[in-house]
Amino acid sequence: MVQQVEEQFALLNGMPAAVREDSTGTTMDAVLKVYAALARWGTRDPAEAQAFGTRMKQAGVEPFLLGERAQSVLGSYASDGELYALRGRTDGYLTACQHRTAVQALQDDFPGVVSSAWAVESMDDFDEALRDVADDPTPMHRGQIPSWAPKSHWWWWQPEPVAMDMREFGDRLYAGDLGRGEPGSADWLRCGDKKCWCYTAPG
C-alpha cells in the first residue's frame, strides 16, 4: 500500500499544476487509505508506526492535501466515520475508532491539514457523535487497539470503566446467539491478555 501511494506521489509531482489541482482529491484519498491501514495495524511495533509517519512527512504530499477537492475528500471521510459512530451501540464503533485514529495520525503528521470549513465541521460532528455513544459501545479486545495509539486517542478505551460481563459482550457481538443458560459459554471470547478488560470481566 505504501509503495502504491509513493508511486502516485511521483506521478503527481511530474504533472502540470492544473492537473495536480484536479488530482488533489485522489491524493487525499490515497493518503487516507494508508493512514486507515495504519489504524488497523493492531499490535505492530510502535517504533514502526513512528518511522512510517516520518516517511509520510518526507513524501512531498503536503501541498496536495489543502486543495478544495482534497478537503472535500477529508470531510467525507470524517462524515463516514460519524455514521459508523452513530452505530456505535451496535456494530460500528470499531470502524469509527479506526477512522478517527487515521485522521488524528494524519493531523499529527500534517498539522493544519483539516483546514476548510466543511472539513472542520465534519470533524466536529464526528467527535460529537463519538462522545455521544462513548459510554455504550461494545468493548474491544486489546489486540484490536493499535499498539502505537496514545491514550489521547480516548475512543479506543470506551466505555470506561467497563462494567460489561462476558455474556453481554457475546450477546452484543452475536445478537444473542451464544445460547443463554450455558455457564462459561462466552469464556472463549476472552483474549487471554492480562491487560485487556476481558481478563477480569465477570462471566
Round the Cα radius of gyration to an integer and report it: 19 Å
How does the major sheet shape up? none
What is the β-strand count?
Answer: 0
Helix content: 40-55%
Q: What's the SSE pattern?
A: HHHHHHH
The general outline is: globular
Uncertain segments of ≥5 residues (pLDDT<50)?
Answer: none
Strand content: under 5%
Mean pLDDT: 82
The span between the termini is: 41 Å
SS element count, helices = 7
Instruction: Please identify the structural class as seen in this structure.
Output: mainly alpha
Word description of this protein:
This protein is globular. 54% of the residues lie in helices and 0% in strands. The mean pLDDT is 82. The protein contains seven helices and no strands.
Give a concise summary:
This protein has helices at residues 2-13, 17-39, 46-57, 68-86, 93-109, 117-133, 166-174. The protein is mainly α and 203 residues long.
Offer a few descriptive terms.
203 residues, mainly alpha, globular, 0% strand
